[in-house]
Amino acid sequence: MEVIIQPTTDKAALLVARLIARRLRAKPALVLGLATGRTMEQVYDYLADMHRRENLDFSLCRTFNLDEYVGLAPNDPHSYRYYMDKHLFSRVNIDKRNTHLPNGAARDLAAECRHYEDLIHDCGGIDLQLLGIGADGHIGFNEPLSALRSRTREKALTPATIRQNSALFRGGEGAVPRRALTMGVGTILDASHVLTLVTGAEKAAILSKAVEGPITSMVTASALQLHPDCRVIVDEAAAKRLRGRAYYRWIFQNEPEWQEFRNR
Ligand code: F6R
């Protein structure tokens, strides 16, 4: 795992967008794992910008989102399908048939989850998975005690997640669905590369547990420590409680692979 500290939220999101763009340029038929949430909005703004200004090409790119609420139709403004259309898919030249989210309105949810795993497998697996971390340390909707080898399945959301996500629901906490379909921790760990973005002071405590604490299913983001190619990009506010801050800064300033991203 590598932790990269950026001075501002903006710079952290821009770095994530640049890393995605670099992979997409190197492999136009990239299989990209995507996340929703407030943290990602800026990343998608930057990617849309790069498409417009630099012709960043999504025409061959295939995407798989981490999760979707159970019971919400794709055209529901609170669904993650709607979020993705709004923040990214409608703003770039992606072929909508190449964009995938689990269908939370499916009649047979277990079959839908198996089908989702098969689709990922048939595409050759995820090349690059984008992640955020929830207030309770989740990745996807892998809430505390999710098995670290879990696959795509239905999960009940914790009160902390319902509270966190209620900001995006007009009806408040009562309007947030109680269940979701989510890639498992095992599904996420199968991706070839993982890019995690964590910003804001309110994530500082959970970030230090995820990155520097013990690996535990109580904080499913801690399973990322097992991944051989995982980068965690953070802003100064989120980094505040990391004990290894000085070393992480040194890495960004000195390792040759980061050279093209310094001073930009
Ligand atoms: C979203 C997802 C979640 C979020 C996490 C952070 O698809 O899988 O794990 O990444 O809850 O959400 P924000 O960015 O809203 O704090």
Largest sheet: 7 strands, parallel
Summed over residues and divided by their number, the pLDDT gives a mean of 97
Strand content: 15-25%
Give helix % range.
25-40%
> Which spans of ≥5 residues are poorly predicted at pLDDT below 50?
none
Arrangement of strands in the largest sheet: 1-10-9-6-2-3-5
Would you give an account of this structure?
By secondary structure, the chain is an alpha/beta fold. It has a single domain, classed as Rossmann fold (3-Layer(aba) Sandwich). Helix content is 35%, strand content 16%. The chain has nine helices and ten strands. The strands form two sheets. It has a seven-stranded parallel beta sheet with strand order 1-10-9-6-2-3-5. The model has no long low-confidence stretch (mean pLDDT 97). The structure holds fructose -6-phosphate (F6R).
Features:
35% helix, Rossmann fold, three-stranded antiparallel beta sheet, 264 residues, alpha/beta, globular, seven-stranded parallel beta sheet, binds fructose -6-phosphate, 10 strands
